[in-house]
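Sample pair:
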Amino acid sequence: MSKDLRLEEQVLYVYAALQHLKHDRSTVEIGEELGVSRFMVGRMVKRARDDGLIEVRPRLSDPIDAELSRALAERFGLQSAIAAVTPSDHPDHVRSVIATVAAKMVRELIVEDDIVGLGPGRTIVEMCARITDIPLCDVVQLTGVATSEAEESLRAVMTLSSIARGRMFPMHAPLVATDAAAARAIAAQPAIKQALHRMGRLHKAVLTIGGWPSSSLLAEQLRQLGELPRLQREGVVAELGTTLLDENGREVHALDGQIIGISTEQLARVPMTIAIGGGAGKERAVLAALRSGFVDILITDVQTARMAIESAA
């Protein structure tokens, strides 16, 4: 297996090789699709074969469906997509595989002196636990805390920051304030203000896709506050960071001024947003995130990927 090709490159090289060798497509045709020369396609096919990435079928070191990944990225205009093959549809299995693949990809994408933002969620916590080394970078927590277990919510930021050896910008604040005045008071606190300022300078943001109503920490918090039915009537099916989305990927402004964390405007300016999510309860949410235009790279499972492509047909 190749040691110097990034995971994203491995997926692309395997795709090119499969299209040429398995489906008998010309290097010119593949080059036009991928936006590279036919000579580059030839080198990609040769490298995929020389490095043992492909024989008659792909041999990626990670459980990934290369053709489905490419189809998903192409259908939604993404920089890249990863459709991971999971051993079952059990939520723990799906989360574990996605976290493992995400850890490898995020590790490969971070470069020295990056400012990296992390959203909440168990998948991101598991992802960070699987990362053992990354270049020096700053790590910013992108939202306030959506559970009563603040330490759990801070774990991902603390873990990645300790490995990155850069500065850490945590958010010791609730995700949802009682009203706009309370949100402004919280945002004015020096440590929170500093973290919010850093969110406008991010190089990369890693966010889980919250699936409403059963696969979202924010939705659960709003349920406890008695606000969930109102938000569902507004059409919310997902959140990405603090941005609420309806099924068409449009922003829902029902909590404007109350949520503590990265704003929609800041999210839109991040050069690379990596969205993570899949499994039961996330299908509509993943599709909404894809339609929103905020996602550059998606890491999901094969079933969710197929559903997204079929729903967009």
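The two ends are 35 Å apart (CA to CA).
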